[in-house]
UniProtKB/TrEMBL annotation:
PANTHER family documented for this protein: OXIDOREDUCTASE MOLYBDOPTERIN-BINDING DOMAIN-CONTAINING PROTEIN (PTHR43032:SF4), PROTEIN-METHIONINE-SULFOXIDE REDUCTASE (PTHR43032)
One Pfam family from the record: Oxidored_molyb
Organism classification: Bacteria, Bacillati, Actinomycetota, Actinomycetes, Streptosporangiales
Oxidoreductase molybdopterin-binding domain sequence ranges: 17-165
Protein name: Molybdopterin-dependent oxidoreductase
InterPro entries named in the record: Mopterin_OxRdtase_euk, OxRdtase_Mopterin-bd_dom, OxRdtase_Mopterin-bd_sf
Origin species: Nocardiopsis tropica
Amino acid sequence: MPPGQAVRYEHRPLHYGPVPVFRPHRWDFRVMGATETLGSYRWTWEEFGTLPRTDSVSDFHCVMRFSVPGVPWGGVRALDLVSAAPPAPEVTHVMAWGEYGYSANLRLDDFLSEQVLLATHRDGEPLAPEHGFPLRLVVPHLYGWKSVKWLRAVEYMTADRRGFWEERGYHNRADPWSEQRFSYQEEPGHGPPL
Ligand SMILES: Nc1nc2c(c(=O)[nH]1)N[C@H]1C(S)=C(S)[C@@H](COP(=O)(O)O)O[C@H]1N2
Ligand SMILES: [Mo]
C-alpha cells in the first residue's frame, strides 16, 4: 500500500455530480486534438466493442486515504487505443473527458502505462452505473480522481493543461507512492500551508 492509505474491501462509489444515463444511440467516444493525421476519431458504442480487449487486476488508490486492493477490470488498454488513433509526435499530455465536462490531465507516458485501461467491465460484469458505466478510465498507479468515469473523449495535447480537480487544489501528477495529493506540493521546498 502507498503511504497514508488504509485498505477498504468494499468499493463504495465516489464522484462529483449526478450519475449520467447511458443512451446507446447518442453515445460516442472520441479521440481529438493533436492526432498524427490532425483529424479526429469517433466510435459508436457498437464500434467501440470491436477494439482489442484486455483483462487487468490492479489496486485502486483514492486521495481520501483508502485503497481497494485487487480490482479485476476488463476493457481496452490505452496502448491499444493509441495504436488505433496515433498521436502527433509533439504530444506530451492527454486530457481525459467525462460526461458533464469532468476532466483529468495525464502525462502521455502515464497514460501509456501497461495497466491503464478504458474499462467496460469489473469482476467480469459490465460496470455499475455509479462506477462509470458504460466506460471509464482506470489509471491504477495514480490517485483515483485521474480515473475518469463516464469517459467520452481523450484529447491529445502538445502542452500540459490542468483538469477539473487539478484546477481546484489537487496535485497535477497524483502519484500515491510519493503522496502527491495537493497542488501546493508542486512548489519546490513548500510544506503544507499553516
Ligand atoms: N466523471 C467523474 N469521474 C470520476 C470522479 C468524478 O467526480 N466524476 N471522481 C473520481 C474520484 S475522486 C475517484 S476516487 C474515483 C472513484 O471511483 P469509484 O466510484 O468507482 O470508486 O472516480 C474518479 N472518477
Ligand atoms: Mo478520489
